[in-house]
């Protein structure tokens, strides 16, 4: 059995408590655990159908209407009652007066149905007896879910306040819910009728908690003890590998080779280019010791590798024949940021590729910058099914060391923010002059090299999750899904499960041969409903259900994760149809995201229109003067105005916070600039269309 020492728990010893009332009186938790919600636990059984047994875990003051429960479980009038003590002891390993959740771990044959009060799911911590009734243990609800998952039970989450009793008048399907429980407010924020173990927050209502649950419960991310650092579990690392497999051959085709430079850099090298470093200095992480001894000089961990690579470029480049020099490395980087971290999106260590090229002419560097930007845009579109807007950064937003910066920008509908997807810089001769990267041209003249640098990081995975996932959990675009198709055989007691399993294996083999990443979920201790939830949470694009009736007809039932569509498919067509369906899902996901993005990309020609659109979670294109001072002022003004709105509205949602800035100057604006148009902000002559937004 699993070791539970990792649980966040507090156990209080107290006088023997045979009832919940005694537990409440005898047991007091402290600190973080003071808000523990005490549970009452009932072992129930059907008098007539003895195999129907229930372990109900409810908040201590939840009213349990046995009649309503009887109706709910279709037990037949008067049949549902307290279960037999001997049976309880045998199956759950607990004695009367000490029934509790942990007993479910003893029910290895899954005989008992676990019923969870929705108020428990909404709580933060729950208190139980740890198998004896002179102590109470408080655990977090997320650990509660872990225990349940480990037990192999698929709990039913019940809102006891909305259960209908047998006595209720028929015809009125939906009664007014019983009076709201004390925790009702909290519960409301979470999903109503969360009849499965999964995501408790909706994307709409609490985006950041939703995101956190999606990435952890789908097993993409595990939190780590060091703030801002996260573990990439196989499901998310697979996506990173897919990105590598997409971009790497394109880089190589374009003449770029991979290499690896050390992750450490001396202070002298790092600060050689003062302007470039200035604003970033507080983010640099330093190694100062080996064991207990101070190093003679502290050494920095790379935040980016210009200062590490370019001294070598100076050594390697002498003649025009040494150019172009095009190198890339796939690495981690460390930037010790103090803004609130968000997994994938803003982390203190992240993975990326950084490309650094040197050319004989500025034109050649331009071409490199733009072809890389195209690969980035293609990667978002073709692999992650995310639409991007290509453009150039404003003076204010460009990388200080660059002549110009190009970018792919994307839109997160739930909070209306823009997010930078990746950047590709034309560095001009700025770094070359600093690092002495020069060559003799054909005429024997000394010339500084023209350089580019570009990067694509694991942030893209977070952006993709934010765009596509839903209230049931992850929704993965098929090309980055480690499992593209899951087969769930549906067997009931009286079915010939061997026939069904044999068919399932046949289907599995044919899909595998067709190059589909397929998984056969033939686990015996889980029921089909549990498996559906399990794979939906993990974003698997297609589920194939295979039951007795389907087999008789030579069919399987296909269910799409992205839109819930269901269809019957002929078994013999699967190997040819499923790859098409995966492509269709990819295209549909892209088109849906594009439609949403376009609906939220507004145009504004005045400041009022601009703020109104911005506050309605849009990104906004405007005619703009392209003057840095104007952007700075617009940034400040938008911040002040949103603060005012926040004050007026009292506690408002996250969306209204923060200033707006230019995301980019799009290469292809929605509508072209018309001669004579004025800047939406300062009223001077407009020079260009700019895309603005609140951003990450
Ligand atoms: C800017 C520029 C550039 C290669 C890319 O955007 C793509 C890949 N590099 C990166 N940048 C810094 O230069 C930087 C420097 C330090 Cl010291 C730091 F702590 C943080 C930084 N962040 C970004």
Automatic annotation (TrEMBL):
Annotated CDD domains: PrdX_deacylase (cd04335), ProRS_anticodon_zinc (cd00862), ProRS_core_arch_euk (cd00778)
Domain of life: Eukaryota
UniProt biased composition (Low complexity): 172-181
Cell inner membrane as UniProt keyword: no
Enzyme Commission identifier(s): 6.1.1.15
Catalysed reactions listed for this entry: tRNA(Pro) + L-proline + ATP = L-prolyl-tRNA(Pro) + AMP + diphosphate
Keyword terms, alphabetized: Aminoacyl-tRNA synthetase, ATP-binding, Ligase, Nucleotide-binding, Protein biosynthesis
Protein name (record): proline--tRNA ligase
Native species: Stylonychia lemnae (Ciliate)
Taxonomic classification: Eukaryota, Sar, Alveolata, Ciliophora, Intramacronucleata
Gene: Contig14271.g15195
């Amino acid at each position: 059995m699993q070791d539970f020492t990792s649980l966040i728990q507090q156990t209080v010893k107290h006088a023997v408590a045979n009832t919940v009332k005694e537990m409440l009186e005898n047991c007091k938790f402290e600190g973080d655990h003071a808000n523990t919600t005490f549970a009452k636990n009932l072992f129930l059984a059907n008098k007539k159908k003895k195999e129907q047994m229930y372990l109900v875990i409810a908040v201590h003051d939840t009213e349990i209407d046995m009649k309503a429960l009887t109706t709910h479980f279709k037990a037949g009038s008067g049949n549902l009652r307290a279960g037999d003590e001997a049976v309880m002891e045998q199956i759950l390993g607990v004695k009367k007066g000490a029934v509790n959740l942990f007993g479910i771990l003893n029910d290895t044959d899954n005989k008992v149905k676990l019923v969870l009060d929705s108020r428990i799911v909404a709580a933060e911590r729950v208190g139980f007896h740890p198998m004896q009734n002179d102590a109470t243990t408080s655990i977090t609800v997320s650990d509660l879910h872990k225990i349940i998952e480990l037990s192999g039970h698929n709990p039913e989450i019940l809102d006891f306040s909305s259960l209908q009793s047998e006595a209720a008048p028929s015809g009125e399907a939906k009664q007014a819910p019983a009076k709201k429980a004390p925790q009702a407010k909290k519960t409301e924020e979470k999903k109503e009728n969360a009849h499965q173990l999964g995501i408790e927050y909706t994307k709409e209502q609490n985006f950041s908690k939703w995101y956190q649950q999606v990435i952890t419960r789908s097993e993409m991310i595990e939190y780590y003890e060091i703030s801002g650092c996260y573990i990439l579990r196989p499901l998310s690392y697979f996506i990173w590998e897919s990105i590598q497999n997409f971009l790497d051959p394109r880089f190589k085709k374009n003449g770029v080779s991979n290499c690896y430079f050390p992750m450490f850099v001396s202070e002298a090298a790092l600060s050689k280019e003062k302007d470039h470093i200035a604003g970033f200095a507080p983010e640099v992480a330093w190694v100062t010791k080996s064991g207990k001894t101070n190093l003679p000089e502290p050494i920095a961990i790379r935040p980016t590798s210009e200062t590490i690579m370019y001294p070598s470029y100076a050594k390697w480049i002498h003649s025009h024949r040494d150019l172009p020099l095009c190198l890339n490395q796939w690495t981690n980087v460390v930037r010790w940021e103090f803004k609130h971290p968000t997994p994938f999106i803003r982390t203190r260590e992240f993975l990326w590729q950084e490309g650094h090229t040197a050319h004989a002419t500025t034109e050649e560097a331009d071409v490199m910058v733009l072809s890389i930007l195209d690969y980035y845009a293609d990667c978002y579109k073709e692999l992650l099914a995310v639409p991007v807007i290509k453009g150039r950064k404003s003076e204010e937003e460009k990388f200080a060391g660059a002549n110009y910066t190009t970018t792919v920008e994307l839109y997160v509908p739930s909070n209306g923010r823009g997010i930078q997807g990746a950047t590709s810089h034309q560095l001009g001769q700025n770094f070359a002059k600093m690092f002495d990267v020069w060559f003799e041209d054909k005429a024997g003249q000394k010339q500084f090299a023209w350089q580019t640098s570009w990067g694509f990081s694991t942030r893209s995975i977070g952006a993709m999750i934010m765009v596509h996932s839903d209230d049931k959990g992850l929704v993965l675009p098929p090309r980055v899904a480690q499992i593209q198709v899951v087969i769930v055989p549906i067997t009931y007691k009286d079915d010939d499960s061997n026939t069904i399993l044999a068919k399932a294996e046949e289907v599995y083999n044919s899909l595998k041969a067709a190059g589909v990443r397929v998984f056969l979920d033939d686990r015996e201790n889980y029921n089909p409903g549990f498996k559906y939830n399990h794979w939906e949470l993990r974003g698997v694009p297609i589920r194939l259900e295979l039951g007795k009736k389907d087999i008789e007809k030579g069919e399987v039932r296909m269910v799409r994760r992205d839109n819930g569509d269901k269809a019957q498919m002929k078994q013999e067509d699967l190997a040819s149809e499923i790859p098409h369906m995966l492509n269709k899902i990819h295209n549909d996901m892209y088109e849906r995201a594009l439609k949403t993005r376009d609906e939220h990309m507004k145009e504004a020609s005045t400041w009022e229109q601009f703020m109104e659109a911005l506050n309605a979670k849009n990104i906004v294109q405007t005619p703009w003067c392209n003057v840095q001072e104007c952007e700075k002022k617009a940034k400040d003004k938008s911040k002040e105005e949103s603060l005012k709105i926040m004050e007026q509205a009292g506690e408002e949602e996250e969306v209204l916070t923060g200033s707006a800035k230019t995301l980019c100057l799009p290469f292809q604006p929605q509508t072209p600039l018309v001669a004579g148009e004025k800047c939406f902000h300062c009223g001077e002559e407009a020079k260009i269309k700019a895309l603005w937004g609140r951003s990450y």
